[in-house]
Design goal:
Blueprint (H helix, E strand, L loop, with lengths): L1 E4 L2 E4 L4 E4 L8 E8 L8 H6 L3 E9 L3 H6 L2 E12 L1 E3 L15 E10 L3 E7 L2 E9 L2 E6 L4 H12 L4 H12 L1 H5 L2 E5 L3 E3 L4 E7 L10 E6 L2 E4 L1 E4 L2 E6 L5 E11 L2 E4 L3 E6 L11 H10 L32 H21 L3
Parallel strand pairs: 4-5, 5-11, 13-21
Antiparallel strand pairs: 1-2, 2-3, 6-8, 7-9, 9-10, 10-11, 12-14, 14-18, 15-16, 15-19, 17-18, 19-20, 19-21
């Protein structure tokens, strides 16, 4: 692929012109195993200043000044191979210092962390996972080169794949919306009958995207309902609406001294339908009456309804015993009886 002009490239394999999208259309940029000098976008530090985020994964070769400026770790552009034991220094997402993790087999050579860097994990005394806040944005760096191999080893050692959850939380952390929306509200339904109970679930995350305890309440229209914590960072609440209408619902409260507000949605409360207002499937009833040989009557016709008089049919059959065949059968039976008696010496 060769560059023609700014943000336009020529694919040498299929002889087609490629126009890259503008970075301003994205909130998070993910760069995986890159050669920095061949990146089509320049001045990534300006992208970060606009409250955006960048995730660097794997090897970084050919450092550029703008990338070297925003990286949380000081790297040389070279990679080291061996067995680098992983140690979690700070809880972040699903990573915990209490758990054991498989080693990395390759990692970027590093000269240490920068002053504004928060190191989440190290591998062989080298920084592995870490992030920094750069002006208005955030940068997260995964310094391990063979992340896919490490993920496979994770599944074998821990019997679960935590890497997708970890990366998902990293992207939330980097995105402007994710950094501010750490209170997640869910409802069991978006419509309910007036007077019926509706249940809500809430999860709260701290700045390191760990489930953490706080004090929250549910705002349902003009009503406030407190949440009850079932376990750390998980809450439940129930509410019975008494009015009909469409109501805005959200959660609010404080977590570690920080005021948070959840996502909001609307719930429609409808009136209970009475039994006599339910529609009757008249076409089905008529079809049943035709198939069974009956007749359909509307409820308004029952006052003048009289049963249809039925017609009765009789059939007479005569049996005659005065036939030669019957006499022959009787004779045979009498002779058989005499023969049996004779053999037994009765006659």
């Amino acid at each position: 692929m060769g560059r023609l002009i700014q943000n336009e490239f020529y694919n040498l394999n299929n002889n087609k012109l490629i126009k890259l999208p503008e970075l301003s259309n994205f909130d998070v940029l993910i760069l995986d195993n890159i050669d920095a000098k061949t990146l089509p976008w320049s001045f990534l530090d300006q992208f970060i200043q606009k409250n955006k985020g960048i995730l660097f994964i794997g090897a970084i070769r050919g450092l550029r000044p703008d990338i070297d400026e925003i990286l949380p770790f000081r790297i040389t552009g070279n990679q080291l191979t061996g067995e680098f034991s992983v140690r979690i220094n700070k809880q972040f997402s699903v990573l915990s210092p209490l758990d054991e993790y498989p080693p990395f087999n390759a990692i970027n050579q590093s000269l240490g962390e920068k002053d504004n860097c928060i190191t989440v994990a190290t591998a062989g005394n080298l920084p592995l996972f870490g992030y920094s806040i750069y002006r208005q944005g955030a940068v997260f760096q995964v310094n391990g080169v063979d992340l896919g191999v490490w993920s496979f080893a994770l599944r074998g050692q821990m019997n679960k794949d935590i890497l997708p959850v970890f990366l998902e939380d990293v992207i939330k952390f980097l995105s402007p919306l994710g950094r501010s929306n750490r209170l997640l509200l869910k409802s069991s339904q978006d419509q309910c009958l007036v007077g019926s109970e509706i249940n809500f679930q809430l999860k709260s995350y701290n700045k390191d995207f760990r489930l953490a305890s706080g004090d929250f309440y549910l705002q349902f229209g003009n009503s406030k309902v407190p949440f009850f914590e079932t376990k750390s960072g998980n809450y439940q609440a129930s509410y019975v609406p008494r009015e009909i209408g469409e109501f805005e619902v959200f959660a609010m409260g404080s977590l570690e001294g920080e005021e948070l507000r959840s996502n909001n949605f609307k719930i429609k409360v409808i009136e209970l339908i009475k039994e006599d207002e339910k529609e009757i499937n008249i076409s089905l009833l008529k079809e049943i009456s035709e198939v069974t040989g009956g007749r359909y009557y509307h409820i308004d016709e029952l006052e003048n309804w009289t049963p249809i008089s039925g017609e009765y049919y009789y059939e007479t059959k005569r049996f005659s015993l005065d036939t030669p065949i019957l006499y022959f059968i009787v004779f045979i039976l009498i002779a058989l009886d005499w023969f049996l008696r004779k053999r037994e010496g009765v006659v």
